[in-house]
Amino acid sequence: MERQTSRDDNNNVKLTTLKNSSSYRTIGLEDDLLKELKKFKARQNELILGSKTFRQNEDQIIFQNYLGNYLTPSTIRESIQEYCEKTGVEYKGTLRHTHAVLLLESGASLVYVSKRLGHKTIKTTADIYLSITEKIEEDELKKFASYTKRTI
After folding, report:
1. What is the rounded CA–CA span in Å between residue 22 and residue 82?
2. Phi–psi pair at 3, nearest 5 degrees
3. For residue 17, what are the β-bridge partners?
């Protein structure tokens, strides 16, 4: 994806270029996710072809509403917050933030996460996403305990 949504001076949603050169990147996706995205796109095409009210936007953007309007980050965030509230699940933040924290908790390197997010520097990633979570703290303490108990 080489574009993102933003708002113009009249608060209308528009497509713009990405923030900076490091934002232009290719990221890997798991095969299962790619399959789900393909199924989603196929279903979306069925709806577009079979409905007089469901429209495809002119840019072929996958994430749109039924009128063909782009979904903005705030629209997605508000929808997820609403679903969380309805299901009694605590809302933990944006998908991007959650993805970054889960990557870090799984043991992914800061360098990898920084590149995946398109940050210019690792410092940006660390400052924004590397708040110490309980999982990271427990894992680091286990590493230290294991190291100090090793035989010399």
Report:
1. 33
2. -135, 160
3. 3
Residues 6+ apart with CB under 8 A from 32: none
For the stretch 79-120, pLDDT in tens is: 889 999 999 988 878 888 888 888 998 989 999 999 999 998
Torsion of CA 46, 48, 52, 56, to 10 degrees: 180
pTM greater than 0.85: no
- Distances in whole angstroms, Cα of residue 87 to Cα of each of 66, 75, 80, 83, 108: 24, 18, 11, 6, 30
| Residue whose pair of structure tokens reads 């929808």 in the numeric block | 79
Q: What is the SS3 assignment for 14-33? A: EEEECCCHHHCCCCCCCHHH
Up-side HSE of residue 140: CA atoms within 13 Å toward CB? 8
Q: How far is Cα 108 from Cα 97, in angstroms, rounded to an integer?
A: 14
Largest pairwise CA distance in the chain: 74
Residue with tokens 């924290």: 101
Nearest residue to 112 (alpha-carbon basis) of 28, 37, 32, 34: 28
